[in-house]
Write a structure and sequence with these properties.
With about 300 residues, this protein is α+β, with helices and mostly antiparallel strands. Helices cover about 35% and strands about 25% of the residues.
Amino acid sequence: TLSLHDALPICIAAVCNAENDKNKVVLCRDWRGEIQGVGSSDNNEKIRWIGKGWVALLAGSDPRADELCTRYENHIKKTPFTEENIVEEARHVFHEYKKALTDSHFSTKYGFPYSFVVNYGKEKFGEAFVSDCLDEAAGIIVGVELIIVGFVDVMDYATMKPWRAPMVVLVSENTDGDVISLENEFAAIGSAVNTARTMLFLREQDSTDSLMETIYAVYEAKTLSETVPGIGESYSIDVMDEDGNMMNLTDEGAKRCKALFARFGPREKTKKTERWFEMKDSYLESYEDVPPNEKG
């Protein structure tokens, strides 16, 4: 049976300020997926509802992404996300899933779960075996990245009125810090994450930016991400409001983004621009020609 494997596509979520000072979140994802040993196609869904008013953008192993999203969906039913608990609860779900994967790995390979190694391994098999198992467990990864998006009630203490605050939760093992982080402005996952984040930083993407500015910013970041192998040209851009309603970018909206990119996006080097890159001897000098006091 063939299984569908993600080529770690690009997914982006960015908070913006829409009409009446109400926040919205712009979601962008490409549709590229690969069937191992066959090829790729641009029809692979990368978004999933995980609860009322909550969605997850996916990158990584499809089966594990589905399993992890199911765990989040079941958890939210019992313990709804709030401003106070969202990071800790998201972290708990992820680590419980990784623990289950680790136990499954050891049960399959050795006939007992990893917890048995921790509790009885030294006594039963010796320190060397336990040390090897610890190294083996450390190498087990979930192999899935998520961006979880939704809104929670937050009290504005200046007006003493509640408002709906956007929550963008990054779930990724590809960070230097915690596997869970709460992002204030935007988040990106996938194999082109560096390209996407660089463009969003360059555009100084901010949660106070307008809806159209933000739609264009994520469109531009996604378009430039297509230079990275595995990123498809097909894409979707959706907008989520504070009530969990979703709107999809229309063909007219896509044409507007394309026109804006032609006007404001980076330019490709052409024959007409080559003269700007003419190299002259005066642009460089020999190291020996530099005065001694200016040498490094």
